[in-house]
Each structure stands twice: as structure tokens, then as C-alpha cells.
Design a protein that fits this description.
The protein is of the alpha+beta class and 344 residues long. It is 31% helix and 32% strand. The chain folds into 2 domains: 111 residues, Aminopeptidase, CATH 3.40.630; 168 residues, Gcn5-related N-acetyltransferase (GNAT) (Aminopeptidase), CATH 3.40.630.30. It has an 8-stranded mixed β-barrel, surrounded by 4 helices. α3 packs across α4. It is globular, with a radius of gyration of 22 Å.
């Protein structure tokens, strides 16, 4: 007797909540966290319900796998497109082999091509081969870069703590002075807020968007992606010019004294956020007592000049894959992606 074949089927976010949570259990993180994520990311997305696909082992059997694509509003060369970020691929342990995972990704890719102009994802390096087999192109890498502000903790790994504290203080002061000397002069007022600012809309509307693909960075996106998220707390650093207009914002989260920039936008972000804006970010982070600042960004090297000039160095990278519904080569299109373009 032949073993039952695997088959894909459409899922429904409202109907299949318990089914999907059951597949996730023990696979994708703590149960309470994943329940909170589902109710936010899947059930409350203001841009439409995610595309959900289920995998069954036998046509009438209970689902043994699930995968989804969450809708994102994006621009390609300034024109609106609908994109889907690939998330939450999970298969029950007894079905966890390349075949079912590959079938599930293929099902999602085919269904996604009917709804989205672009499907993209951030797989771990081990899953890169699966994405290539399904037909995704490598868009590039999302690279994590960091800048140390308080050196004592890092120096203590290599020298006695009292000496590290003294050396760290001296190095901190020297780096702060160097930052002040080399920072381009621009009058910017920095302040923190716990909620997305309505001025995000004016900044987004007035700023150039550049060539290639970029996600819409307006107040509606920030309110859902960060303010409504139950998974992490976010603070925004706002930079205001002499005329009172918002010049830039950074969506930040804190982990172990490190200020992680999860997203940002500015009036010059399309060509590369300027060093003066990043210098203002470093001053605010230093004043708030953070030990370091990090950012993840995928995009052309030219748009990284401000971060590099401010002393950010690479700490790690992950691949980004994408697929256009009309079949054009995804890797030929420049991208502007941050941590915010993922699901959490």
C-alpha cells in the first residue's frame, strides 16, 4: 500500500488559528509569545491578512505544516507594489525532511505570485539552498553593523576590571571628542518618544524614495509594526531641523544595554542617511547610557557611507532572497531593507 502523498491547501487566518499554533508548538519559540505574535501579525495587520498555506499528509488529513507571507506596502522605482515577507515555515517533527519543506515553500511561492508583485524572505544560511530550488534570487545580504560607545565591558574581557574601567573611560572620552570633531555641522534637535509621530507622514511624502525597492515608512506602518507589537518595546529618536521639520527618525529597541536600530528613515535615506544624523543618534545613545548601537541594513554600499564614517563595523550578515511575480531577475533591483521588513 502506497504511503499518502503530501498536498498543499489554502489556510484561513481566522479559521485556522488553533491549527497553526499547534504546528508551531515546540518549533518556533515560546507558546505564549507565538500566540501573541499570531494575534498581532496575522489577525491585526492593517494591510490585509497574511497569505497562509497548509501542508497535509493525505488529502483529508490534519495539516502537518504551515507557512505564510505577510503583506507589505512597498515602492519599486517610486511606484507602489504589493510585497509579501515569507515567515513562519514550520513542519511537524515526524514530517521534517527536505521534501515536505520544499513542497510547502513551492506552494507558497505559487500562491504568492497570484497576490504579490514581490515575495522576499530572510532565511537562515542553511535554508538558502531550499530558496534557490524554489526559484528565489539572492537580493543581497542584510548586514549587522555596530558601534561601541562604552568600552569598559569589552576591555574587561582582556584585562583586569579596574584597569578596564580606567582605560574604557579614557577611550570613551577620546572617541566622543573625535565624533564631535569629524561630524558635519547640522543643527538638529533630538528627542525621544514612545509612539510613532504624525510627522512621519510628512517626512515620507516629501522625501525622495530612490531607485529600487523600499517599504513605505509612514506613521501607519510604524504604529502597527512597532507600537502595536506585543513582542518588543520600541522608542523613537526624532531629529528636527532648525525650521521645526522632522529630518529623520530611528525606531530603537534595547537589549543588554545595546541600542538596536530596527528601522529608520530620513529626508536623505534614499541615497544614504547622512553622517550628521547618525552622529546625533550616537550622541543621544551615549547620553542615555547605552554601551553600543547596532543596525541591520540591506542595500547598496553607497547608502552605507554615513554609517561607515560614524565608525560602524560589520558584526554579521544573513542572506535575503526574493522573487518577482512576472519572473524578472530580483537580484538586479536595488533594495532598502531593515529589521522592520522582517516579521519581528
Amino acid at each position: 500500500m502506497n504511503a499518502p502523498a503530501y498536498a498543499g491547501s489554502a489556510g484561513d487566518v481566522a479559521r485556522d488559528r488553533d491549527v497553526v499554533l499547534g504546528i508551531w508548538r515546540g518549533n518556533l519559540g515560546q507558546d505564549a509569545r507565538m500566540q501573541a505574535k499570531y494575534d498581532w501579525f496575522y489577525a491585526q495587520c492593517p494591510f490585509g491578512a497574511p497569505l497562509l498555506r497548509l501542508l497535509r499528509h493525505g488529502a483529508d488529513a490534519a495539516p502537518v505544516g504551515a507557512a505564510a507571507a505577510g503583506p507589505r506596502r512597498m515602492l519599486r522605482d517610486g511606484r507602489p507594489i504589493e510585497a509579501g515577507v515569507l515567515v513562519d515555515l514550520a513542519v511537524l517533527p515526524e514530517h521534517r525532511s527536505l521534501g515536505p519543506a520544499l513542497m510547502l515553500q513551492g506552494e507558497l511561492a505559487r500562491a504568492g505570485a497570484e497576490r504579490f508583485n514581490l515575495l522576499y524572505g530572510f532565511p537562515n544560511p542553511k535554508a538558502a539552498a531550499v530558496f534557490k530550488r524554489v526559484g528565489y534570487d539572492r537580493l543581497g545580504d542584510i548586514v549587522r553593523r555596530a558601534r561601541v560607545l562604552r568600552h569598559a565591558g569589552y576591555l574587561a574581557r582582556r584585562m583586569p576590571r579596574p584597569l578596564a574601567a580606567l582605560a574604557g573611560f579614557v577611550l570613551d572620552r577620546a572617541r566622543a571628542i573625535a565624533d564631535a570633531v569629524r561630524s558635519p555641522h547640522e543643527r538638529l534637535v533630538a528627542n525621544w518618544t514612545d509612539r510613532a509621530d504624525t510627522r512621519f507622514d510628512a517626512l515620507w511624502s516629501a522625501s525622495p524614495k530612490g531607485e529600487g525597492v523600499v517599504g513605505v515608512r509612514d506613521a501607519a506602518f510604524a504604529r502597527w509594526r512597532f507600537d502595536a507589537s506585543p513582542l518588543a518595546s520600541t522608542r523613537y529618536l526624532l531629529l528636527v531641523g532648525a525650521d521645526g521639520a522632522l529630518r529623520a527618525w530611528f525606531a530603537c529597541q534595547i537589549e543588554d544595554a545595546v541600542l538596536h536600530v530596527r528601522d529608520f528613515w530620513s529626508d536623505d535615506a534614499a541615497t544614504g542617511i547622512g553622517q550628521a544624523r547618525i552622529a546625533a543618534l550616537l550622541r543621544a545613545a551615549r547620553k542615555a547610557g547605552h554601551a553600543a548601537v547596532s543596525v541591520e541594513y540591506a542595500g547598496p554600499d553607497a547608502r552605507l557611507a554615513g554609517w561607515a564614517a560614524a565608525g560602524f563595523v560589520e558584526r554579521g550578515r544573513r542572506p535575503v532572497f526574493g522573487r518577482w511575480s512576472e519572473g524578472s531577475a530580483a537580484e538586479a533591483v536595488p533594495i532598502h531593507l531593515t529589521s522592520a521588513d522582517e516579521d519581528e
